[in-house]
Amino acid sequence: GVGGRLKSGDKIQTQLGLRGVVGIDYLARTVPIDVFLELSPILDFTPATEFFFNAGLGARFFFE
After folding, report:
1. pLDDT at 12
2. Given phi > 0 = left and psi -120 to 50 = alpha, else beta, which region is 42?
3. Looking at beta carbons, which pairs linking 41-49 to residues 24 or more positions away fall under 8 Å?
4. Which of 41, 44, 45 is nearest to 56 (CA)?
5. Beta bridge partners of 23
6. Which of 14, 30, 32, 48 has the fewest CB atoms within 10 Å distance of its CB?
7. pLDDT tens digits, residue range 11-53?
8. What is the C-alpha separation between 58 and 49, in angstroms, rounded?
């Protein structure tokens, strides 16, 4: 999906932009675990127009 992005803090300038997420997920059939990979394109408008990517890899365990 696509959404807004606002990042601020004491040691960084405030950044405002758009962020999206696309990914893939594998859910195992025999155990309550899934593994995912996501890619997040980011377009910041302030303080300067910049385009870059974030990525994530992870796993989840589901308690039943």
Report:
1. 81
2. beta
3. 42/5, 42/17, 42/18, 43/17, 43/18, 43/19, 44/5, 44/15, 44/16, 44/17, 45/16, 45/17, 45/18, 46/14, 46/15, 46/16, 46/17, 47/13, 47/14, 47/15
4. 41
5. 38
6. 30
7. 888 999 999 999 999 999 999 999 999 999 999 999 999 999 9
8. 30
Helix and strand numbers (H, E) in the chain are: 0, 5
- Res 26: pLDDT: 97
**Using CA atoms, how far apart are residues 62 and 64, in angstroms rounded to an integer?**
6
Tokens matching residue 36: 């995912």
The pair of three-digit structure tokens given for residue 5, joined into one six-digit string:
């992005």
Joined together, the tokens standing for residue 39 give: 């890619």
pLDDT band at 10 (very low <50, low <70, confident <90, very high): confident
Res 5: pLDDT = 92
